[in-house]
Design a protein that fits this description.
Blueprint: E1 4-7, E2 19-21, E3 25-27, E4 32-36, E5 42-45, E6 57-61, E7 63-66, E8 69-73, E9 81-84, E10 96-99, E11 105-110, E12 116-121, E13 134-140, E14 146-152
Antiparallel strand pairs: 1-5, 1-12, 2-11, 2-13, 3-10, 4-12, 6-9, 7-8, 8-11, 9-10, 13-14
Length: 155
C-alpha cells in the first residue's frame, strides 16, 4: 500500500510542485496526503479507481487527477503513466501509479493552483525489484526558493 500525504503549508514550507524522478511505482499514492493552503484540509490519493483486474500493464495517459490534485508527466515522453493489473506478478499489492519511462519526471499540482505540503508518500520498486533506487523530490517554497531531497527505496 502506498501513501502520499499533502498537508497545508507551514511558514516557508516546501510547497508545489514536487517532481518525482525514476520509474518507480508511487504505490498507490493511496495515501498521497496533501493539505491545501486555503482551509487546512488533507487529501489522500490512493489510485484505487485505476485498479484493473488483469495481469498486464495498463496505460493511464499523461495526466491523472484525484481529490483535487493532478499527477502529470513532464516533457515529451514516449510512454504514459501506468498501473499493473491486480493479477500481475509486478503488482506491489495495491494499485500503484508509475511513470513508465525510466528516469522520467512527473509533477504533482493542486487543481486550480496554490500551495500545498506533501506530508507523506509511499514508494515501491518497479517490477518488485530487489534493487534500491534513488528518487528525488524537488519543490518550490512560498518564498520562491527551491528545495530538493533524494530518498532511496528499500531493496
Amino acid at each position: 500500500m502506498s501513501r502520499f500525504t499533502l498537508n497545508p503549508p507551514k511558514n516557508n514550507a516546501t510547497t508545489y510542485p514536487p517532481k518525482i524522478a525514476k520509474a518507480l511505482l508511487l504505490t498507490s499514492f493511496s495515501a498521497l496526503s496533501v493539505v491545501a493552503a486555503a482551509p487546512a484540509q488533507s487529501a489522500v490519493l490512493n489510485f484505487e479507481s485505476l485498479a484493473v483486474n488483469n495481469p498486464i500493464l495498463n496505460d493511464v495517459g499523461t495526466t491523472y487527477t484525484e481529490n483535487g490534485f493532478t499527477v502529470s508527466q513532464v516533457g515529451n515522453q514516449r510512454f504514459q503513466l501506468g498501473v499493473w493489473g491486480t493479477q500481475s506478478v509486478a503488482s506491489p499489492g495495491s494499485t500503484a501509479l508509475f511513470n513508465n519511462p525510466a528516469n522520467g519526471v512527473i509533477r504533482l499540482t493542486q487543481v486550480g493552483g496554490g500551495a500545498f505540503t506533501l506530508s507523506s508518500i509511499d514508494l515501491a520498486n518497479l517490477l518488485n525489484s530487489r534493487t534500491s533506487t534513488p528518487v528525488t523530490f524537488s519543490g518550490l517554497s512560498a518564498d520562491n526558493s527551491t528545495t530538493a531531497q533524494t530518498f532511496t527505496s528499500s531493496a
